[in-house]
Design a protein that fits this description.
Layout: H1 3-17, E1 20-27, H2 31-41, H3 46-54, H4 60-79, E2 88-97, E3 101-106, E4 112-117, E5 120-128
Helix pairs in contact: 3-4
């Protein structure tokens, strides 16, 4: 690896140490379904977002709730104190496409239809409004 690339990689790592985030990889649902839930809570205060996710009927909301609780715990661990009400907000949240499992389903007249079992990765950043 060249010096320029190494310096850029070290700068990215140093930036991540000052941010508070959680990641869930290989969630077995399509990214489109997950983005619907993620769009509901983007930019919300964390307690309000937890309430929204808890009472949502979408199955993907359970995964996003778990990731949010993990991000809050990461923030509390790094700051060595509990988060106060109204202090933390979801600063950034996004869904990336994961691996796609390709399967075959039997079809009429000896054919086979392809089934794509999609997965996704959820990344959630939390922070305070003063830091942003």
């Amino acid at each position: 690896m060249g010096a320029r690339k190494r310096l850029a990689a070290e700068a990215r790592k140093a930036a991540l140490k000052t941010q508070y985030f959680a990641k869930q990889t290989n969630v077995p649902s399509s990214p489109r379904k997950m983005r619907y839930v993620v769009d509901m809570v983007r930019g919300m205060e964390v307690n309000r977002a937890l309430g929204t996710l808890r009472f949502s009927k979408k199955a993907a909301s359970l995964v996003v709730e778990k990731v949010l609780l993990s991000a809050i715990a990461n923030w509390e661990q790094k700051n060595e104190r509990k988060a106060e009400d109204g202090e933390l907000f979801i600063t950034k949240i996004f869904v990336d496409e994961g691996v796609t499992l390709k399967r075959m389903r039997p079809a009429p007249q000896g054919r086979g239809y392809r089934i794509r079992k999609r997965s996704n990765h959820v990344t959630l950043f939390v922070g305070t409004k003063t830091n942003d």
